[in-house]
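User: structure tokens for Cytochrome c domain-containing protein, please.
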Amino acid sequence: MKKRLLAALFSLSLPAAPALAADGAALFQTNCSACHQADGQGVPGQFPPLAGRVSKIAATPEGRQYVIAVALNGLMGPITAAGNTYASFMPPFKTLPDDQIAAILNHVAGLPSGPDATVFTAEDVAAGRKESLTPPAVIEKRKALDAQHPLP
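Assistant: Done. Predicted tokens:
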């Protein structure tokens, strides 16, 4: 009886393999949709749209690094996105594990119509953690990237 009880308790403490995979859509809804809306379209003048833009920004290695920097370090300062100006503040999400940040970014890169893209890996996010930036420094990174590759 004790052995069966211990075996049952042990098996309950191990997550099933599918539970280990991060669900980008669910994580986006929990962490991002309050500002960027469920469809990633944002709110004009308040929160910039992500849908249709993140995949374009991430088309270059520098763009991928920038997107990861935004997710990890947040953003603070004025930006122009999709032709509109925003007085931006985005909180950092560096407390989330690397695989969850990658899943969110892949979900956003697949918006507006999905499916989730496979642009970002947990290893990419882990590498991005090595460059700790302040939210205003991320704006400077954005300006440099925009000068090199105009952002949508």
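User: Anything notable?

Assistant: The chain has nine helices and two strands.
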